[in-house]
Amino acid sequence: MDDRDLDRQLVERAQRGDKHAFELLVSKYQRKLARLLARFIRDPAEVEDVAQEAFIKAYRALPSFRGDSAFYTWLYRIGINTAKNYLVAMKRRAPTTTEFDAEEAEGFENAEQLRDINTPESMVMSKEIARTVNDTMDQLPEELRNAITLREIEGMSYEDIAAIMNCPIGTVRSRIFRAREAIAERLRPLLDTGKDRRW
Amino acid sequence: MEKLSAFVDGEVQDGDVQSQLARIESDAGLRSAWNTYHLIGDALRGNVSPDLTSRVVARLRDEPATLAPRRKPAGLGRWAWLAMPAAAGVAAVTLVVWTAAPIWQAEPQIASGPIAAGGTAAPGPVTAVSLSAPEPRTLASGIEVDNYLFAHQRYAPTSAMQGVVPYARTVTDERRGVSK
Q: Which residues 42-101 of B have a C-beta within 8 angstroms of A?
């Protein structure tokens, strides 16, 4: 099974009425979608509103999703259309279809400045989270840092990482988990102090 | 938790997916870990922003549960669409054969094979039409054929598909007229 298979199973559960399954998809793709929308909606608060609206539209359209494309590709199109409609309603220029295409959806990882997707209020917290993650990464043992980098930055499968690191897949799995837990341990105090917003 | 970490990456066996999803949905701690692991991944890709999940979930509470119809087994619909025209075609061919069969069966009576020099008809090539004839006929001469056709004139088919029969009848009539 790969990442796309997991999404497909979550979608099928959501199509059968399981809202928790859809919640997991929202959690997984929210920031990716928000960053996409931030490319042509400059106000971070508006980006959040449009992203939220796109997820609701996606949920309503779930019965028509047949799985011919990846879930994110489908969500991406809904996000673009929602943003276009929003900009038209606000009498602002909507992006043309050639500015963003479905091919780009899968590999949409351009580095963007944090300010593009953060309101002034959330800016401090976002910076703090980013700093904590980076500091913890620097302190990780090399094999843990390499394993999670190959997974999260390069998007490699466990099998490929095992081949590169010359170790069993089980070891890759353990290293990625330990790296995540080390970072999560440092993040939890920050995340628990959020007053009215979750991170 | 290590299982959850692998699950976040889609690195589990197919058979474990449903049980793992059920655990996540029933355990708030696992759901929180799911969120945190995705936040870490997003942060490593330079993409940190507030969590929208709670806002979306709040909106979803007001939404009716979506219930997509179960999909039919793949390919069944396509076969059904192919079968209907095929059945129509077979029915059309059957109708044509049924209608035209009596006409086709009339022709071997005059065209069962070339007449041999000795006065007997040579056995013709085996055809589907000759199978339907009760007995192979032996025609002694051209005059016998003429007589036969004249005697059965009123039973001869009159449609446009009767082949050489009208021609033979006309010739016979003319010959009889001349002999008279």
A: 42-57, 59-60, 63, 65-69, 71
pLDDT(A99) > 60: no
Mean pLDDT of chain A: 85
Task: Find out whether A144 and A178 touch, Cβ atoms under 8 Å.
Answer: yes
Does A15 score more than 50 pLDDT? yes
Question: CA B180 to CA B175: how far, in whole Å?
Answer: 9
Q: Which strand (E) or helix (H) includes residue A149?
A: helix A142-152
Q: What are phi and psi of B115, to 5 degrees?
A: -85, 125
Task: Return the residue of A nearest to B63 by Cα.
Answer: A60
This prediction's pTM: 0.65
Q: Which long-range contacts (CB under 8 A, 24 or more apart) does B3-8 make?
A: B4/B30, B4/B33, B4/B34, B4/B37, B5/A173, B5/A176, B5/A177, B5/A180, B5/A181, B5/B37, B6/A158, B6/A173, B6/A176, B6/A177, B7/A6, B8/B34, B8/B37, B8/B38, B8/B41
Q: What are phi and psi of B121, to 5 degrees?
A: -75, 130
Contact B55, A199 (CB under 8 A): no
Give me the residue label for tokens 């059957």. Answer: B94
Closest Cα in chain B, distance from residue A88 (Å): 23
Residue with token string 């007229």:
B177
Q: How many CB atoms lie within 10 A of CB A15?
A: 22
Q: Give me the residues paired with residue B115 across strands.
A: B121
Model confidence at B141, pLDDT cuts 50, 70, 90, reads low
At residue B26 the predicted structure's pLDDT band, cuts being 50, 70 and 90, is confident
Token code pair at residue B133: 């004839």
pLDDT per residue as tens digits for the range B52-95? 888 898 888 888 877 666 555 444 555 555 666 777 888 888 88
